Amino acid sequence: DVQHFASGLISRPYESTKHYTILRHTYGIVFYRGPSTTVAITVFADRPLPLDRTIWLQRRGFSGSTGLKIGAALGSKGNWIDVTPIPSIDSKDLDPVDERAWTRDVSKFLHKTTDDKPLCSHLPRETAVIRIPYPADDGYFRLVLCAGKKTLCGSPVFRLASLSTDSSSIRGASLATLPIELG
User: CA 155 to CA 48: how far, in whole Å?
Assistant: First the structure.
């Protein structure tokens, strides 16, 4: 399965800050399927999530991870897309296969981080299924958890792919994923 292999070239499935962690449940490559295109994440924290929390979709540019971090630190949201899920989902609304897979991902994460002092206090606070809107187009993205204008944590980078042959879709590719982008 190409999606599984290529996803292995994209970074680990979680990113952390001092107080927050985002675990991505979906593969590192997400194929665009119209309005049903989603990315599932679980947010962990050592405190309750802020009531005004939002989730934004940030495109990775030619400057790669450095540009993502600088943009987030400066609070620049110029080309970010607000993808905060409005309705919260209940476990009865989930496909049982997805729910089992997400539970397994959370268990693996908690097991891996038992010896990691800063991360062992992070508890699962929310699982969200984020719909990726049409304007996102091809490219590399991450989800960013914010409270007001403050950036709390970014997710691992993922590749949104379609059957486009547009050369701009390689923007944000790392050295590890560039051979796949170029064919």
Answer: 18
Q: Which residues pair with 16 in a beta bridge?
A: 21
Query: Which pair of structure tokens corresponds to residue 26?
Result: 């979906």
62 three-state secondary structure: coil
What whole-number distance in Å separates Cα of residue 105 and Cα of residue 98?
10
Bridge-based pairing of strands 123-131 and 53-59 is unpaired
The pLDDT of residue 75 = 57
Q: What is the pTM of this model?
A: 0.78
Cβ atoms of 7 and 113 closer than 8 Å:
no
Any idea which residue has 């292999």 for tokens? Answer: 5
Task: Domain 2-182: state its class.
Answer: mainly beta
Q: How far is CA 4 from CA 7, 36, 156, in A?
A: 5, 20, 16
The pLDDT score that the predictor gives to residue 133 is: 92
Q: Which residues of the chain have pLDDT under 50?
A: 1, 3-7, 167, 169, 171-172, 183
Residue 179 tokens read as: 């051979």
* Residues paired with residue 140 on neighbouring β-strands, in sequence order: 159
Judge whether 145 and 153 are in contact, CB under 8 Å: yes
